[in-house]
Structures are given as C-alpha cells and as structure tokens.
Write a structure and sequence with these properties.
The chain is α/β, with parallel strands linked by helices. Among the domains are: about 140 residues, Sandwich (Immunoglobulin-like), CATH 2.60.40; about 110 residues, Chitobiase/beta-hexosaminidase domain 2-like (Chitobiase, domain 2, 2-Layer Sandwich), CATH 3.30.379; about 70 residues, Immunoglobulins (Immunoglobulin-like). About 25% of the residues lie in helices and about 20% in strands. It is built from 19 helices and 34 strands. It has an 8-stranded parallel sheet. The chain has a 6-stranded mixed sheet with strand order 10-15-13-14-12-11, covered by helices on one side. A hairpin with a 2-residue loop joins strand 4 and strand 5. It is globular, with a radius of gyration of 28 Å.
C-alpha cells in the first residue's frame, strides 16, 4: 500500500515545465525535474509513475532515461543506471509529447514512487508547475489565434457589458413568458399558512423549508393548486402561474411539476426579510428536455455533491439529470449480482498484493483509500439520490457506457472469470464475460486505452446488460421512482477494435457480415431490444445512430435507418466548428431521430472558461465562457459566428438546416460536465456554474428570435444587448442568491479585467454587479478591503496593487496583481 517515506513527507520534490509549443505544430517540449529531498538513498531500479493526457515521444527523452506508456494516461519514468538515488540528487528529464501544453490542466499529475527494493509504494502528489509566461508556453502553435486571457484581454472583453439600473434587470431566471410587477409588496413569514391538496405534499414541504428561514410571525397566506394555465397553444405539464397580492399568493400549475416551477420562481422573488413584489407571472418552458450530465466515473462525486447539483438544477428548472455512472476509469453503482463491478471497478490505485484495482488515472494517486478515483453508490445511497431528484421533478437518466469506454466493467468481469475458472467453475466463469481471451486487436482509444472495448459478439454480454438493467429497474422501484430511459453510451469506439477477435470473426461469418460496423449495428439493436423487454426507452450518444457509408466515392457518416422507437433519443456532441459534423444533430433530426443537443463547443462545461493557464479544464472543443452557452441557438447554430478551437472563422462547406419536422424532434439541450478534471466538489461547482444557468436560460426561456434578424450587424447588436441584460441578472440578482444558505453554491467568480491608462488603473468585471475589492499594501483582497468604484491613480509607494472579484460571502476569484515599478 502507498505510504510516506518512513512516515515523513514525500521524499521526492517534483517540478514540471512546458518549454515550448512552437517547435512543431503537433508536439511540445517539456522538462521534468525530480529531486531526492530525504536523507535516505532510494534503492536502484526505482520507477516513478505519473498520469498525463499528453503521450510522450520515446525518441525525444533525455538519454539515460525512459518514459514508457503503460495504458490510458498512466506513464512511468525510469533511469537506465543501476545506482541508488542519493539524497540531494536530481534527475532532470527533457522530452517531447503530442499536441501542446498551455495550462496547469496539461501538466502531469499524481506521481508515485515504486522503489527498486520492493519497498512500499510512496505517493508523491502533484508537481510544482512552473508558470506559463512566454509566448511559446501560452500558445499552441504559430497559427493559434485565440488570445491569451490576461488581465488586459479580460478588460477589453468586459467592456462589452455595462452596469444596468436594477429596474432594467429581470427578476426571474430563466426569463418567464410574462412577468408584471407593481410597487406593492407581499410579506411572507415563517408562520405563513400554506393551503394545498395531498397531491402537492412534496411541493408544500419544499416551500415550508423555504419559509422556515424567514423571520417569525404570521405573514400572507399561500395557496398551492393544480389548474389550467391560460396560454396560447398547449401549455404543457410544467406551465405555472404566480398571482401575488399583498395578502395572498397563489401558485398554480398545470400539474404538480408546474406548481414546483412556480415555487422556484417565487423563491427568486423572495427577499431575506420575506418581502415579495406584488405582480403576476405566467410561464412555460420552450423545450421539454432540459438536462445536465455529470460524469462520476473519472472522479467519484459523493451523494451530497450530487444532491447539491440537483438543488442548483431545480432552482433554474432543469428537469433531466444524466448520470454518467461508468467509464474506463470507474464503475460507480453497486450491482448485487455482480459485486466485482464495484469491488474492482470502483477502486483506483496501487492496492495491496492480491487485491485487484484499476490503475490511477487523472492524478488520482496510488492510495486506493484516499483516491478521488475510488468510490461508489450502494443501493441505499442511489435510491436516496433518486428520491431527492424525484421530489424536485428531475428525472435521473442513468448511463452505462458501452461497448467502448467500458474498461472498468471489462476488467471487473475478467477478474470474475479468472477467479471462477481457477475454482473449476468454467460455466459460471463465462456467464458474464465481456472480453475475448483470444482477442489480439490493436487499437488505442482517444484516452490512450488499449483494452477498453467489450467483445460484442459474446452472448454473455447480453446477459450482463440484462442483469444490470434488471437491477437498476429494481432500484428505481425500491425508490418509488419511475425509470423510463437508460443511456447506453456508445461513443468513441476506437478504430481497430474487434478486428483481432476470433469470437467476433466467427459471429460475422455466421451472419454473412463483412464489416465490423455491421457487428456494431447489431449490438446497438440488441441493446434496444433488451431495454424494450424491460419497458424502457433507449438513449445513446450520436455514434449509435450513425453508419459509415460511401457516398460519391468518399466515406461519410450518415443517419442509420433504424430509429429505435418513438421514445428513444440520441445525444449529439461532436459538432464543433471545423469538424465537418456541425450539422450532425440536424441531419439526425431530419431523418427521424429525437435529438438532445449536447454541443461540445457551447455546452461542454468541462472545457476551460478561458485561455488562461490557471483555468481548469480541457479546451479541445474551444474555450467555453458563460456567454458561449447563453448565445447557443438550438435551432440554427449558424447565426452566431462559428470559430474552431484555434480561433479561426469557419463556414461549413455543407450545412443541412432543420426542416419543420426535424425542428419538432429537437427534444432539448443538455450541458455536459465530464469528470477528468473534477477531483472535488469545489471543482465540480466551479465548472458547472454559472454556465449551468445560461444553459437553463436557453432551454427554458422563449426563443429570443435572433435568427429572424437578417442583417448580421443588427443581429450581433441584439445578441450583445440580450447578453448584457443576462450578465447583469447574474451579477446583480442570481449569483448573490446562490451565496445564501443552505445551498451556498461554489460557482466560478470571474477574475477582474485590469489595464493601466494615463497613469490610472481601470478595472472591470464580466458580470456587472459583482463586487471588486482591492488592496495597495500587497495583501490579498478580502470582504473588508476597499471596493473598487473608479480608476485609481498609481502611487509609487504601493508595494503592489491587488484586486479580485468577491461574492457576498467573501469568496474570492483569482487575484490580479499590478506592481507600480512595472508602469512605463
């Protein structure tokens, strides 16, 4: 098991630096330095392991050392010398790796030492990452046109917004269809009476919890009721009405879900002293599917973290929680019939001898017990999450990713196979096997795995899926919550999978198939039939609805003819500008598929907010600011300028627009929060919000009509105006409300913009209304520091000027520092 070096701090100090991204368009150079800072020699034959998402090039490693790829993002470093590693001795290794490194997210993490004398494994933690200060460190290559997001660049971006008077800022988010308020107020108290019928017991409990935080006393009464809502057309089950008078509030919904939505709007109107503006609100959502996906496979998120996300979703009327429970790096739901799935698939690290586990990934470290990569939900915890979501009218859509992204399940079932086979139970060993023992396929997944694909020709695979689905359905029944849909993943199967599998070849020969794509299509149909037997709808990523076909002499991806049933859905993600698949969602919708838009370039919330080395997150689909989610136009993505991840303007050569039938098949939109860089609750909440709120605005609020404005300049002006109002809504109303207990959500605070002009420092913030605080003595700004309100003349007596964005709790953004001696 991992340990410290004789109980002390880790014996090796590690430093990593990107040297340059500009030597080649496809590689970068880096330096890794490791120093023995203990007073003991480390036995010869040592190996240092690390996780990195950038594959090293063997031929470029400093002579005398090797950097070997193990699997996935796990690599190891060894020295060719057979001498002990002496105290004070440093090993400095330079190497090149694929792609580029422009932020801390790109650095290797999760180092651990395996000594050469068979001593205990020693966790070393993360390296000191040297600053990205030079142009060759901050840009991916010479054609990278995305400007670095420094304080001056942020200032220029923030100038697009201006502070609005509060009476010009909407009171409810997402924006309702109609809202009128008067100067009168209604006062609610802890003792306010709530009248309702038993069908609204759940809504009454949530409302009562809200009132219990108000001052004591008898306030206006509240009536909760189910009844018709006066709207043009069919209002739908989520429509609601608020009628607020000085002595009474009526919350009416078309269904209990509508009543719940009305309560969420009432909560936004309610001040801390219990006052509510009198008025009238009528509202209904634009899209029936408004979702958020959380990946807990890459890093585990505990029950409380999930519930906090559900609370945040409910506040802004999101109604689908896509629960990504399995992937290569973890299986997170206990399945009683198959205990290996969590005994092995939910444990990451270097386990004691004889105890199987998955390897460390994404810097999760060697210690299984302390790893953010270890953990799972038992039956009780999972049903508690289901009930919690159901009380908030959020449907939980579980995902079990297959046939790719399935290494955790494959390894767990292989361990089960080996154990039972060794015990002589050959039949039992093969019952749930997911891999072909004779498979010699050679492939590498996007995440660098070589063994993460299920052998889809095995009949045991169908048995495995049926067993998992049966138990999941049972858990939903136990929770008293309906299970309607299971998401089966299906994305990113690497080329080369199944080509070396004798079992797959035998299945193809038996069926007369000549392409593995036919084998894959058969697997998708089998999954659909299994779910149908359980009365469940099928869902999958876009790859499950596409086939390779030769058109006009070239290979293309086309919609598959099998739709999978009227309630099935495909989630379309890989439609970034310049990919050639910008219109994939529309082509699928036009072909008859029900589509959930999950566009990576606008709705992947694991992407970094900005091109800043300190911003966590990937950026392969571009940098996704809150504005990118707000300006996403679901039914015509061409109306906002398309730029690829490198900042180049892109106009697709071919783009199929939605026809009227296709537009009706856009079920809604969903934000994705993949888990590679989400090692903690704080990181999840930082990445989720405020982008989640912009997602909710686009999913719920009426179409803003941008596409109806033919003139590009007029359209851009209207979008800028709408964004300015929304940015003010966030800064002046929404985010301060998220500061309040009991939720107190850990959303991202944007760092300030700052420039020096004419001897004075000018600062601004992306979301007008958020407070900027500063110091001039070099200390970190806090809630008691002076508030920035106007430009400040620089004084040479300042040791340093520091400024940060603060919320009402005193949480601070990253600090921007200016040294007077740097002034020209």
């Amino acid at each position: 098991m991992p340990t410290n070096f004789n109980g002390r701090m880790p014996p090796i100090a590690i430093e990593w630096e990107c040297l340059s991204n500009l030597a080649s368009d496809a590689t970068f150079s880096a330096r890794l330095s490791m120093r023995n800072v203990s007073n003991q020699a480390i036995a010869p034959g040592w190996t240092v392991y690390l996780n990195t998402c950038r594959k090293t090039l063997d031929s470029t490693v400093t002579p005398g050392y090797t950097m070997k790829h193990i699997n996935g993002d796990l690599f190891c470093v060894t020295a060719e010398t057979n001498q002990a590693w002496q105290p004070g001795e440093a090993h400095t290794i330079k190497y090149d790796a694929q792609h580029w490194a422009i932020s801390d997210t790109d650095a290797p993490l999760g180092f651990y030492l395996v000594p050469g004398d068979a001593g205990p494994v020693i966790d070393l933690g993360d390296p000191v990452i040297m600053p990205f200060e030079l142009a060759q460190q901050r840009h991916r290559h010479n054609d990278d046109r995305v400007p670095a997001s420094d304080a001056a660049q942020r200032f220029r971006q923030n100038e697009q917004t201006r502070l609005l008077p509060l009476d010009q800022v909407g009171r409810i988010t997402p924006r309702p269809l109609s809202a009128r308020f008067s100067a009168e107020v209604c006062v609610l108290k802890k003792g306010s009476q709530i009248s309702h019928n038993p069908a609204l017991d759940s809504e009454e409990r949530l409302l009562r919890a809200m009132l219990d935080r108000l001052p004591s006393g008898d306030g206006a009464r509240i009536e909760l009721e189910v009844g018709p809502i006066a709207l043009d057309g069919a209002p739908g089950e989520e429509a609601y009405m608020l009628a607020i008078e000085p002595d009474k509030i009526v919350v009416r919904g078309n269904t209990p879900h509508g009543v719940f939505n009305g309560i969420q709007s009432l909560a936004q109107l309610l001040s801390a002293d219990g006052t509510v503006p009198a008025g009238h609100v009528i509202d209904a959502p634009r899209f029936r599917y408004r979702g958020m996906m959380l990946d807990v496979a890459r890093h585990f998120a505990g029950k409380e973290t999930v519930m906090r996300l559900l609370d945040c979703m409910a506040r802004f009327k999101l109604n689908r929680f896509h629960f990504h429970l399995t992937d290569d790096e973890g299986w997170r739901l206990q399945i009683a019939a198959l205990p290996e799935l969590t005994d092995i698939g939910a444990r990451r690290g270097v386990a004691a001898k004889g105890e199987p586990s998955l390897p460390p990934s994404f810097g999760s470290g060697a210690d299984v017990a302390a790893s953010a990569g270890s953990g799972y939900y038992n039956a009780g915890q999972f049903t508690e999450i289901l009930r919690y979501a159901h009380a908030r009218h959020i449907e939980v859509v579980p995902e079990f990713n297959m046939p790719g992204h399935a290494r955790a399940a494959v390894m767990a079932m292989r361990e089960r196979y080996d154990r039972l086979r060794a015990a002589g139970d050959i039949e039992g060993a093969s019952e749930y096997l997911l891999s072909d023992p004779g498979d010699e396929s050679v492939y590498e997944s996007v995440q660098l795995w070589h063994d993460n694909v299920i052998c889809i020709a095995l009949p045991s695979v169908d048995r495995f899926i049926d067993t998992v689905v049966s138990e999941v359905a049972s858990l939903y029944r136990s929770a008293g919550v309906p299970l309607r849909t299971v998401h089966t993943g299906g994305d990113e199967v690497p080329a080369g999978a199944w080509l070396g599998s004798p079992i797959c070849h035998a299945r193809m020969k038996e069926q007369g198939w000549t392409e593995v794509s036919q084998l894959h299509a058969d697997f998708v149909q089998r999954c659909r039939r299994i779910l149908a037997r359980h009365g469940l709808a099928y869902a999958g990523w876009e790859e499950t609805a596409l086939i390779h076909a030769c058109v006009g002499g070239r290979q293309q991806l086309l919609p598959a003819p099998e739709l999978g049933g009227p309630e099935s859905r495909v989630y379309v993600w890989n439609n970034t500008w310049g990919s050639g698949t910008e219109d994939c969602a529309y082509r699928l919708a036009n072909a008859g598929y029900n589509v959930v838009l999950s566009n990576a370039a606008s709705l992947y919330f694991d992407m970094a907010y900005a091109k800043d080395p300190d911003e966590p997150g990937y950026y392969w689909a571009g940098f996704v600011e809150t504005r990118q989610a707000f300006t996403f136009c679901p039914l015509d993505t061409t109306i906002t300028p398309g730029r690829n991840a490198m900042g180049h303007d892109i106009t697709p050569a071919v783009f199929e627009p939605l026809d009227s039938a296709g537009a009706a098949r856009i079920a809604g939109i969903q934000g994705q929060l993949w888990g590679e860089n989400s090692r903690s609750r704080e990181r999840i909440e930082y990445l989720a919000a405020p982008r989640l709120i912009a997602l909710a605005e686009r999913a719920w609020a009426a179409d803003p009509g941008w596409y109806l404005i033919a003139d590009p300049d007029q359209r851009a002006s209207r979008i800028d105006s709408d964004w300015n109002e929304f940015a003010n809504r966030l800064g002046q109303r929404v985010l301060p409300q998220l500061d309040e207990a009991p939720l107190a959500y850990g959303y991202r605070l944007p760092p300030p913009g700052l420039v020096l002009k004419d001897g004075a420092l000018h600062a601004n913030v992306a979301l007008p209304g958020l407070a900027l605080h500063y110091t001039t003595d070099g200390s970190e700004p806090g809630i008691g520091s002076r508030r920035y309100r106007a430009p400040l003349v620089v004084s040479p007596d300042w040791p340093a000027f520091r400024i940060a964005t603060l919320d009402t709790r005193g949480r601070r953004s990253r600090t921007v520092t200016f040294y007077p001696e740097d002034a020209p």
